[in-house]
Amino acid sequence: QVQFVESGGGLVQPGGSLRLSCAASGFTFSGYAMDWYRQPPGKERELVARISGTNRSTNYADSVKGRFTISRDNAKNTAYLQMNSLKPEDTAVYYCHTALLFARYWGQGTQVTVSS
């Protein structure tokens, strides 16, 4: 079955960086787009970034453009989210996600806290 194992979250000071990883299994990873979503405390989940499976085109939420970079290594079945110049408003649980045919799949989430 489809599984994701996320890692890389933690506590970081404003202006700092973190790199999230999402190791995938159970499907043909290279054939599908991968997304990173986040859910801040008390707010709805929102799409942060997307990368396509083949040509690796990317899209970002306006709030993270120029600071976050999504990438993937299809040989390792892993997606990444490099987060630079972090702000307190980036504090959230971050989830990797993919949509396969008629179903959506989510990782377990990793907490990112930006605070001094």
**How big a fraction of the residues is strand?**
over 45%
Q: Spans with pLDDT under 50 lasting ≥5 residues?
A: none
Described by its quaternary structure, the protein is single chain
Relative helix content = under 10%
The gyration radius over C-alpha positions equals 13 Å
- Which class do the helix and strand fractions yield? mainly beta
- Total strands: the figure is 11
Q: Tell me, briefly, the overall form.
A: globular
Instruction: Note the main sheet.
Output: 7 strands, mixed
Helix segment tally: 0
**Arithmetic mean of pLDDT:** 96
Task: Name the helix and strand elements from N-terminus to C-terminus, one letter apiece.
Answer: EEEEEEEEEEE
Termini separation: 40 Å
